[in-house]
Amino acid sequence: MKPEIIVIGSSNTDMVIQAGKLPTAGETIIGGKFLMNLGGKGANQAVAAARLGGDVTFVAKIGKDVFGKQALARFRKEGIHTDFVFTDEDNPSGVALIMVDEKGENCISVASGANGTLNSRDVDKAKASIQSAAILLMQLEIPLSTVAYAADLARKYKNKIILNPAPARPLSSKLLQAVFLLTPNASEAEMLTGVKVKDKGSMLKAAMALKACGVENVIITLGAE
Questions:
Q1: Is the Cβ–Cβ distance between 139 and 45 less than 8 Å?
Q2: Which residue(s) pair with 6 in the sheet?
Q3: Strand, helix or coil at 28?
Q4: What whole-number distance in Å separates Cα of residue 209 and Cα of residue 90?
Q5: Is the pTM value of this prediction over 0.85?
């Protein structure tokens, strides 16, 4: 049987410009190729998990617009269960503006739109699916209160919670103690621990600080490294 995975999170349309370098404040850069892709950290997690063989249910909120319709069609094409992808009648689908340099580093600004209205009532509608799942996969592009509520449910049902703590923000000790696997990048690890990650020693120190907060497993990602 395929492992049952619940992903609760964001769905965005990514508008990407590739350029030789990232602009500094006030600087205009003439970029190269423009791409428009379906994205959002939650949607990316759901698609990746489905492609790797998971039986994936996605809990998300989209707008009543062309971006939302395109996203929903893509999820279904990927074999993702979309019973709990809700439509917000009042807010647009999320959009991310992304610049990527020639080394693959990026900078991103997100207009959350409907992602910002995903709430505990929406999560409650997926309770049965959460209860039967093995893994709950989340990030922080939806309200933190919704993430915390879902984590409480998953803990009750003994799911393994995997959390990508992005975008970076402070997290409660209660939430960290519920996490089976935390996957911060260097700046997110610094936000959560106060330890500046600049080499293997500081990376280990930050990881151990997170484990001391109650996180069971930690993977710190290092961008191009």
A1: yes
A2: 57, 136
A3: coil
A4: 42
A5: yes
